[in-house]
Amino acid sequence: MNDVLLEGREIVKVFPGVRALDGVGLRLTAGSVHALLGENGAGKSTLIKVLTGVHAPDGGRLTWRGEEVRLRSPLEATRTGIGVVHQERNLIPDFSVAENITLQSPPARRGFVDRGAMSEPALRCLAELDLDLDPLRPVRELSVAQQQLVEIAKALYTESRVLLLDEPTASLSPREADRLFGVVRRLTARGTCVVFVSHKLEEVFALCDTVTVLRDGRSVLESSPLAGHTHDDIVNLMVGRAHTAAEMPPRTPDRTAAPVLALDGVSTADGHQDVSLEVRPGEIVGLYGLVGAGRSELVKAVLGLDRITAGEIRMHGTPVRIASPRQALHEFGIGYLTENRKEEGVFLDQPIHRNITVTVWKKLAKALGYVPAAEERKAAQDLVDRLGIRVSGLEQNAGELSGGNQQKVSLAKWLAADTRLLVVDEPTVGVDVRTKHAFHRLLWELAREGLPILLISSDLTEMITLADRVLVMADHRIRGEVDNDGDYERMSGRIIRIIHDRALPAVTTQGEAG
């Protein structure tokens, strides 16, 4: 279809001191899946807010089916036919699933909201997502993934002709993401335009047919067929220059060195069976698997957060039992960079210097527990400089930083404690291409300096970029091991075949046929 639904021409949006959008244009046509791409700060969120009536543009014009429109509120945008699912969920926790789905236009009877009539349309929208939920269940009882799908069901209820999805798969498992992609294809088949915002370029190329790329508030590629561009083309447009793994300096870990961490036949109360692995100095060992494979749960058991029921954990060859993350850090030098940086990684309402030095207060403390402010700030500043954390000052609260800089602050606190083994869990979820590359280079350099790293990631490109060896997990067991030769096509094929228990034997070694 070539029916243009919504078009923006020369859109300008200015905030005090910032020209957030500077002549941006895009054209959204019926039946298309349109990728809106750009780094953090490129203007994507501002453009979405202009298209959905949150912000009025300061210049340019919007047209709906060829007629100029002024969207004065999100409700007006919804009534026009423009829906949005934001990355940050916008649900009322104590309301039921049905109440949340029908909130913008609840069924009414004789001028009053008819709660009894909410379940039927809610169930219809949930069925489109193949989501089996009780419509009367409070939203606060749902998992993060279920809440995300309820957000999408809200958009289905309003029958949007243009539907904007902002990082919709950030909290979904691969199976749930596939379900969402099926919904997107059904929507476009009946003429809806879906705008897909994602940092996961693999998803973009699998799903989208058209692309707009923003950089520094400008559209550097506007409503162009995606088929005419490669992965590297898009990355180069987003960041303004080539960003490839080839820029990483040489690093060759010593495979003959004694392991820093070894698991031998470990089983846990969570269901892991006979797990064995080793991590050596300067080595990045990857744990890859689908959501639910048990990777994070395995690490938490090692750190004392779940019960080890069998097997042995060794640090530097000595059998150990770790009772808590605190003991893991202070006795064995294990740092754990959690995937949930906002709730577990940083104290959002505390200054940066306090976040970084929290792991070494005991070491910095003088008599009666007093921590000298000058020493605390010096330790923090050294790591801010080393990691390239972009801050206005050490007194700035961590909650004011971008996601990528928050993750660097979380890493800094473990480096401050002279961590001798670093566990990194989903380190770049929700960060843009440039930040992801910078974080990859940072981990690479740490390993090059001799730090052993255990990397947990669901991002296959990230895994193949960084890991020396990839251990493939499924159903709380290690199903295979692949030496990484850096060839994405060959590596991804071998890893996926292990997950699906095809073709490959239980353990593969470098040099075997792919």
UniProtKB/TrEMBL annotation:
GO terms for molecular function: ATP binding; ATP hydrolysis activity. It is found in: Cell membrane. It comes from the Bacteria. InterPro entries: AAA+_ATPase, ABC_carbohydrate_import_ATPase, ABC_transporter-like_ATP-bd, ABC_transporter-like_CS, P-loop_NTPase. The keyword Nucleotide-binding applies. Keywords: ATP-binding, Cell membrane, Membrane, Nucleotide-binding, Repeat, Translocase, Transport. Its main location: membrane. It holds the Pfam family ABC_tran. Residues 6-241, 250-500 form the ABC transporter domain. It is a peripheral membrane protein. GO terms for cellular component: plasma membrane. The keyword Membrane applies. This is ABC transporter permease.
